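SEVERITY: medium
COMPONENT: batch folding queue
REPORTER: lab tech (J.R.)

DESCRIPTION
The queue accepted two submissions in a row. Attaching both inputs and their returned structure tokens so the on-call engineer can compare them side by side.

ATTACHMENT 1
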Amino acid sequence: MTKIKTSEKILNGATRLFAEHGYDGAIMDDLAAQCNVNKASIYYHHKDKATLYENVLTALFIPIADAVVDAVSSEDSPVKKLDTHIKTFAKFSADKPCFAAILMREMASGGVTMPLGAAEQMQRILFLLNGTLQLGQSQGIFKPADPLIIHFMIVGTINLFVTSIPFRHSLPETNQCNQLQSSNIEKASDQISKTIIDSILIK
């Protein structure tokens, strides 16, 4: 078994801690205890708390932006580009629930602690979406739509779906509540994609 490097172990532990408690609520003493290292080791590998947070978000945000850009770029049709955009983002968010939790916290707080590099990755996703919408409009496929609103519909809905899974699983086992306990991201992203595309598609 490959031994995890101390810097990576700290990064993994910090990712969980920031997802659970946010930037302000994450205590470095707790992180040191969880990772079985001393606090000096955290600062040796990641300089300070702000740098550690930036490193965590960089490790989360760059791969999702790259994945969405690569997947969308491989499609030609604006409809397929938008569908792929939504489903790729959804799959990553489900695979990396800490990303969804951290992003939801940043959105709720107005992004006051979000590092510039992470914000730029979200801008990449937004600008890519805008290009898809503009392409669809130029081809007479999409109605004019505000890219920021569509972006919020995608990001907000998917991240809320992912972050609310533990809460929804804790609901009583009744016929009504059972309908709320789904954690199937494929079905959820398919529904989100159809809803958004149907709302802007020129029929």
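ATTACHMENT 2
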Amino acid sequence: MCRMCDWLGDGTVWYKNPKNYANRMYKLREPGAQGGFRGDPQNVGAGLPEAIQAKANGDLEAFHSIIKGMNERHATQPGTQVVPLRDCIELVMDMGTPFVAMHCICRKTARGEEETNINEYSCLGVGTGMFKWERWPERYRGGVEFLSPKQTAEFLEYWDKRGMVHIAMQEGGDFIGGICNCDYPDCVPIRQRVDYGLNYQLTKGEYICEPDYEKCNGCGECLGRCQFNALKYESTIDKPNIDPMVCFGCGVCMTACNRGAIRLVPRRQYPVLANVW
């Protein structure tokens, strides 16, 4: 199981554990008791500018040393995990209310853009913490819109069709605060993992995507949707292929296939992938 399942799963997949949707802000603690967060939240990104500069200077030894230190810190911090659409819908229908459409902080950071209405919102706030969203005006300055479970499912399906990866956001050490819908050019966790090897900012999904070559006709509808470079066209077979060691199991290629030629397979089904998170 991944580190967050060990930490928060109670023997199951952590984002399917109902306890993780009971926001700690609504729990009474003993005087002096601390929340579930581990480590210093202000220290999460410390070192990345120095790592980038070291790489630009060609000092790969310093770069790898800084990244190693960051990974050691991040291993004790809350993280995020890729979740396929079908699991997102299951969560929406079973346990995550309330749901709130809101702007994407990654796009604001990467592009300086602020989504300000339901036609622009691309991320999803989840859980009782959303009743206190107005306490963080900078994070939610673009506003929010509460959604019904049906509207939330349609919201997720809309962004899935546009090729967005769904990411469960673990907050504060003991609750799930949202589902991010994002892609490589904008997403901070995706970019930090893919570009810099910060492996604990984004955990691979519980599944891998596996092609069924008997059903695949090589149409290429899935090509261009993988945000992690796991899917490539194989000229020797005239069909796409998926590298299971690289795949994050987001399922965005699967939902694009009209022939049902891609399936989700539990990562732990294959011993070689059981610890590749």
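NOTES FROM REPORTER
The chain is about 25% helix and 20% strand.
No errors were logged for either attachment.
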